[in-house]
Amino acid sequence: MYRVIDYTSSNDKFVLTIPSQKQLEGEVQSIPGCLFDKKTKRWAFPANSMTIKRFFEIAKVYKFTGTKASKEKTKEILDSSSIVVETPIDINFDLINPDKKLFPFQVDGIKFLIAKKRAFLGDDRGVGKTPQSLLAVASAKAFPCLIVCPTTLREQWVNEIKDWLPTIKTKVIDAGPISGHLRDFNVMSYSVVWKHLVALKHRNIKSIIIDESIFIKGRDAQRTRGIVSLVDAIKPEYRYCLNGTPVTNRPAELIPQLKVIDRLDDLGGHTYFARRYC
Predict the structure, then answer these.
(1) pLDDT tens sequence across 215-251
(2) CA distances (Å), origin 244, targets 95, 101, 123, 126, 278
(3) How far is Cα 128 from Cα 119, in angstroms, rounded to an integer?
(4) Left (φ > 0), alpha (ψ -120 to 50) or beta: where does 204 sit?
(5) In angstroms, rounded to a whole number, what is the distance separating the alpha carbons of residues 203 and 182?
(6) Which residues contact 76 (CB under 8 A, 6 or more apart)?
(7) Would 70 disulfide with which of 7, 87, 123, 155, CB 3.0-4.6 Å?
(8) In the chain, what percentage of residues exceed pLDDT 70?
(9) What's the sign of the alpha-carbon dihedral 211, 212, 213, 215?
(10) Phi and psi dihedrals of 183, rounded to 5?
């Protein structure tokens, strides 16, 4: 019986048609996010570099026939993955205050953030997550950037921007109406996200930095729903979650944070992640 891999663009998934064999089914289930559809009698998994890598390992043993759509999507994923690895990452050192100096691990962190575009930065407290994220956004020219942080850290962010990037313009968004144009960096607290959700939707925001992202660990919390709604509305190309302790109690706390940076599907999706890690 034929083993076929297809691709459906409507839900961005690869679809497998396989014979009913326990050993093969067990291998297919090991693909992150792969689920069986009882109606179609087929298996489907998210189309990304992680899943296709696992599929290739299975296909070395079990030969599959690929449709034109699946071959084109696979090539797209592989080409995209290689671009991320091979393209040189340039940091705009000219923007940095000449009195400031980056450590080698911070340079690596900036390059990582620029390359991945949507990522966690989980360095320990006090080692420079703030300048790494600021310089990643500035080097990528991902302006305007929205920075969301606890109210107590808002002024600290403003000061860090002035210290590291003195020529970059900054705006503080408080509880009042947003007047005028956004600046390069726009700092706001979690408490005003819902208030400005509509106003920010059409501001062409290119990046967002979520500081102390553990604040959105609760899936049903108002603060979490506000951040998720904001990101869904503005759809920034660059998304960074910053926290030295992204998990305080259980792995489920990562789910809202992964959703915000659009990485949950890379780990198999909500259902798979919860079933495997929670």
Answers:
(1) 998 888 899 999 999 999 999 999 999 998 767 778 8
(2) 26, 22, 5, 9, 21
(3) 16
(4) left
(5) 8
(6) none
(7) 7
(8) 96
(9) negative
(10) -95, -170
Gap between the Cα atoms of 144 and 141, Å rounded = 8
Q: Is the peptide bond before 144 cis (omega within 30 degrees of 0)?
A: yes
DSSP category for residue 262 = T
Residue 4's contacts (CB-CB under 8 Å, 6 or more residues apart) are: 16, 17, 18, 64, 65, 66, 67
pLDDT digits (tens, 9 = 90+) for 88-134: 577 888 899 989 988 889 988 999 999 899 999 998 888 899 999 99
Q: What is the largest CA-CA distance in the chain?
A: 68
Query: 65 with 108: CB under 8 angstroms?
Result: no
Q: Which residue has the tokens 């979650």?
A: 241
Residue 206: its H or E element = none
pLDDT in tens, 60-80: 878 899 999 999 999 888 877
Residue type, 206: K
pLDDT at position 220 is: 84
